[in-house]
Amino acid sequence: xxxxxxxxxxxxxxxxxxxxxxxxxxxxxxxxxxxxxxxxxxxxxxxxxxxxxxxxxxxxxxxxxxxxxxxxxxxxxxxxxxxxxxxxxxxxxxxxxxxxxxxxxxxxxxxxxxxxxxxxxxxxxxxxxxxxxxxxxxxxxxxxxxxxxxxxxxxxxxxxxxxxxxxxxxxxxxxxxxxxxxxxxxxxxxxxxxxxxxxxxxxxxxxxxxxxxxxxxxxxxxxxxxxxxxxxxxxxxxxxxxxxxxxxxxxxxxxxxxxxxxxxxxxxxxxxxxxxxxxxxxxxxxxxxxxxxxxxxxxxxxxxxxxxxxxxxxxxxxxxxxxxxxxxxxxxxxxxxxxxxxxxxxxxxxxxxxxxxxxxxxxxxxxxxxxxxxxxxxxxxxxxxxxxxxxxxxxxxxxxxxxxxxx
Length: 407
Fold this sequence. Notes:
By secondary structure, the chain is α+β, with helices and mostly antiparallel strands.
């Protein structure tokens, strides 16, 4: 079913005022026309015509059915045709009615209704032409012009055809612009919703990746403190208990700092990826031996801050997964920055898992999403009892181009 062009309330108001202005112009034109019958009947016909057109102009039925819209346009054109028969001036209103038809009807209906209306007007003009010729001869007004009736009909035909064609084309352009504007508004709304969803997803990943590791390590330290407490109070256990409590306090403060950072876009001007990874590996030593290998191409261009931070979060989440799920004692973290790519590798000697099996955790999913944002490829190689290897390859030039285009 054809839908009318979506017209905003502001445009509706403008159209209504334009039509009322054309009605006022028609009143003035009729009063100045010598053909207007200045009699009660003439004034009555003009009043009825204006009231009928005013009623139609009050509301543009873009939300109604196609049949209703067809009847609406037909009623407007019929009123104009009747006003022509009553010899009332309405040429501007004729053009405006065609534009409204372009907003309400399919293009085929607009062309067909305009052709029918113009044909009826030409037919009425041809029928009245002998009378006009006789009146001109009687009044000796431009009698030479009426010596060739065929030429008069041809001029009238060309005038109406060219004028109506131009108006129809302009109406189509106006209707297309209204539809394009509406589509742009819908797309803008969808983009806004998508941007909101992406931002929520980003915040969720940041909170999960930053707080997840720290809270997991905090849980381990508190579990150690509880174990040392139940082993009995001696010099050795007291020292270990104090050390575990101090580490827990440090982790709690770190959780608070990371929570604040996760609630805003983090662009630390002095973010050092190598130093951050070294600190991360040292935090793991209480429960996991991490062999750290970081080779950054310091001679080349420095990594963008956002890229460095995303790589850090991927490393952090990967090691947190090893600590929480792998039952591993050793892990290897490697970040190698060459001229054209960055290769991040995380290996462990844990229990492994089935790669094709659907997991309910958010960690691996968050790592995949971050990898996609960087334009990289993440591969996971794992078997039960054989440990796990996770490798991310980021094509550096493509990633830098994407960062420049979004900056």
